[in-house]
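I need you to check the entry underneath: sequence plus fold tokens. Let me know what the token row says about the fold.

>
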Amino acid sequence: MQPQSFSRRLIDGATMFVVTGLSLLLLVYVGFGEAKRTYEEFNIEKLVAQGSIAQNSIENYLRAGLPLRQYVGFTNLAEPIVENEDIDALTVYDLAGRQLFFVTDKSKPKLPDPPAAVKQIKGKAEVDSTGSYFQIVLPLRTRFETVGSVVVVSPKSVVSKRLNDTFRPLVFLLLGLSVVFAVFVSLAAPYLARTRAPWLQVAYGFTFLGMAAFVIGSLINLYSDGIQGKAKETAFTLSQRLSDVVEFNLRIRDFESLDKMFADYRRLNPEIKEAALIVDDVILVDTDGSKVGKPWISAPKT
């Protein structure tokens, strides 16, 4: 009877390992799918913000009535952007889809063909995600018409690597939890059979909840990184709009409607709680009008 009892316990343990492993794997799979969808959106929004730096600079030039082909300084403008590991190239096309300016990463990656959207430019940013690259197409407008586009090229491997780094440890964790639960069932089977308390269900519940807590924690960290990355880039884009004021040694206080620009920025980026312009340690413009004229105090919960 003893060998048969021992083999039976081994079979029960193996069965619990498979059942627990599959259920936890399903939990991780669902979390991975949700993370991929959401983190890709964060990454694309960050790429749009980075491309907007070049877009805003070039459009300031175009609104002065100058031709796109004669824009000077694209390399100096694009190189700091392309140095970011998220971006492999930055390109400017005219309406016919002809390449006017081009800056690529120093590693000289093999880049995809330009997207069809460069010949059919719309009034807002478009995303082409074919192949192994994201290509973000941003329109370039004068005061009266669209004359070309800026294209930001980013490898999808950036998103894949971040997701893999986040979820690979969870796979090892689910295997470990499955083994622990299977060993528990094998060793405690004789005692569980003699008690009326549902210890088996309770142990499985704690195992599942523990795995769920790790998955949720990983998602929170991933989303936090994505939101912070986008916030930094959108803040930098806003600062670029004011850079000409500083470069030409003008007084920021002499400019009107800055509050409207900050309000529009806040409206277009709803995840941003507050944006402020600080001059001499005093808030000159703030999306929260009650703080204007007061010293800036950083909120610890943001």
